[in-house]
Known about the structure:
By secondary structure, this protein is α/β, with parallel strands linked by helices. It has a single domain (about 5-185), classed as Maf protein. About 30% of the residues lie in helices and about 25% in strands. Strand 3 and strand 4 form a beta hairpin.
Amino acid sequence: MNKLILASNSPRRKELFKLLNIEYEIITSNIEEIVNSDILPEDLVMDLAFQKAVDVFKTHKERIVLGFDTLVYIDDELLGKPKSKEDAISMLHKLSGKTHIVLTGCAVISKSISKSFFEKTRVTFYDMTDLEISEYVESGEPMDKAGSYGIQGLGSKYVKHVNGDYFSVMGLPVSRVYHELKALEIIE
Length: 188
C-alpha cells in the first residue's frame, strides 16, 4: 500500500497520527479555506477538512489523503485561531467558566473513497482571572490554536471537564480515525 498522506502541517496531528502506527507522509494544503457560514458547524468542519484533502489529492491521485480541521464554538459563535493577542484574550474571556464545543472533522479521499466524519467534544473551563488569561496569552501558546488554547499544554490547567474524545480536542480523534480506516479496509 502506498503511504497515506496527512494533509496537515499541525505538529499535534503529526504526533497523534504516529499513534496509529501507519506509514504516512505529510503534504500540506495551501488552499485558502472557504468558510460557508450558512451550514451547521458539524458540516462546516467536515467541509473544511474535505477542501484540504481534495487540494492535496489533485496532485497525488494514486494515494489516499486525509484532511482535518478543528473548530471551537460557544453560544453559536465560531472561534478560530486568534488574529492578535487581543483576539486571544477576548476568546479566553468567552470560554472562562463555561462549556464550549470542539469539533474535529476528517475527510478521507482516494480514487474510490470520499468519506467525511466528525467528532464532537464538550469542554468546560474553570473561571479564569484576567491575570491568568494575560499570562497565558503572553506564553504564546494560544496563538496558533482554534479557540486560543491547547488542551495538551499550558491551557490544560484551565480545563475542568472533557465530555468526549480528548484527542479530538487536540485535532485528531485517534480511535475514530483508526476504526474508520479499518472499516474502509485501508488498514487491517
